[in-house]
Inverse folding.
């Protein structure tokens, strides 16, 4: 299947912005994981946020480690969100057919600002938090917010709890459709996966997507969204599980390289690809494990696996911060994707783009730099 450069492969070809850091303080605070960050936040914004305590902290878990009933409670909550009406103007956003698709539309609207930019990691961290809170407040979900452990499932995608297709999974592969190799760029392609068609198993069998793919060239060239971006384009959810992508870019060696990155610039390269090279990197590789629409930088949120995929990305980022406490409040990148048009470097004081109606309160990047301070109070079950 020819995707050309309409995909995450272009992440590997993007321009790398400059590095900016904030001077750490030596003030101590309650967190043992983010002492530098939490001390900086307490000094910068005293009393702004409710303290995170052992009594209030949430633990995010590996999907595969959760009991079957816990997994089903999570997918039931996602389907509950999808049963809620859209809160967006239907004359502007006909593709927003329900509250879940409101999240997908919001992601499309902010894609150019929050990818390949200095907002990427922290904007998505809060976006995940907003969805997690929505599951609780709108649908009464009380369980853990799970992550999909990419390297742990790389050698056996179909046998993992995530993709085994049972009622306790995130649904399985799509029906097999032989469309040939996946061509990402003139110098980068990967073999076809094991699916490509409609997902007909598990809790998201029959799930409908509502937006067509948008070429990543719109990001790279700094173009506004096409007029048809939010036109209703309803279709079955498709997947194309790709073991080659999983074993090539999302293995334990790749994970270790990311976690041992000496600075955030190197970390960004490890997760998003090698400049001008043939590597997708950990994060972009994970998107190509699942195929379209999950491999589209704009509309990937339409597939519910997006949330566990990005929760693991946040786990990788969090673990890198914990491993490098003196660098944990470093920022990297500019205010625009691939710095097109040229923009200022993002700092801890830079105000984040908004999250639509889900998160109207303004936050700086620094507000979102710690998982145990600011608006957050969560940890992961295992530090990577």
């Amino acid at each position: 299947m020819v995707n050309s450069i309409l995909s995450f492969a272009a992440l590997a070809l993007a321009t790398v912005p400059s590095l900016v850091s904030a001077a750490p303080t030596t003030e101590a605070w309650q967190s043992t994981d983010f002492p530098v960050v939490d001390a900086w936040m307490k000094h910068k914004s005293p009393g702004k946020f409710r303290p995170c305590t052992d009594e209030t902290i949430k633990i995010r878990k590996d999907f595969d480690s959760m009991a079957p009933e816990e997994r089903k409670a999570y997918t039931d909550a996602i389907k509950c969100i999808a049963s809620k009406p859209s809160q967006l103007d239907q004359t502007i956003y006909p593709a927003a057919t329900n509250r879940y698709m409101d999240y997908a539309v919001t992601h499309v609207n902010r894609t150019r600002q929050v990818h390949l930019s200095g907002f990427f990691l922290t904007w998505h961290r809060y976006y995940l938090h907003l969805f997690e809170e929505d599951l609780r407040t709108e649908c009464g979900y009380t369980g853990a917010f799970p992550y999909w452990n990419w390297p742990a499932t790389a050698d056996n995608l179909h046998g993992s709890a995530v993709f085994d297709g049972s009622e306790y999974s995130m649904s399985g592969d799509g029906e097999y459709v032989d469309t040939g190799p996946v061509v990402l760029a003139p110098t980068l392609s990967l073999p076809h996966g094991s699916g490509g068609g409609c997902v007909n198993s598990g809790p998201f069998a029959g799930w409908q997507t509502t937006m067509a793919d948008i070429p990543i060239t719109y990001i790279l060239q700094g173009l506004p969204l096409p007029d048809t971006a939010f036109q209703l384009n309803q279709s079955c959810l498709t997947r194309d599980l790709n073991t080659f992508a999983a074993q090539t870019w999302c293995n334990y060696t790749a994970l270790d390289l990311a976690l041992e990155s000496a600075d955030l610039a190197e970390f960004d390269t490890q997760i998003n690809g090698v400049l001008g090279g043939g590597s997708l990197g950990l994060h972009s590789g994970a998107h190509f494990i699942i195929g379209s629409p999950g491999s589209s930088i704009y509309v990937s949120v339409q597939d519910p696996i997006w949330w566990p995929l990005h929760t693991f990305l946040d786990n990788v980022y969090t673990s890198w911060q914990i491993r490098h406490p003196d660098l944990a409040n470093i920022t990297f990148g500019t205010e625009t994707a691939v710095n097109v048009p040229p923009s200022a470097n993002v700092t801890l004081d830079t105000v984040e783009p908004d999250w639509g109606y889900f998160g109207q309160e303004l936050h700086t990047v620094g507000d979102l730099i710690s998982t145990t301070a600011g608006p957050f109070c969560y940890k992961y079950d295992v530090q990577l």
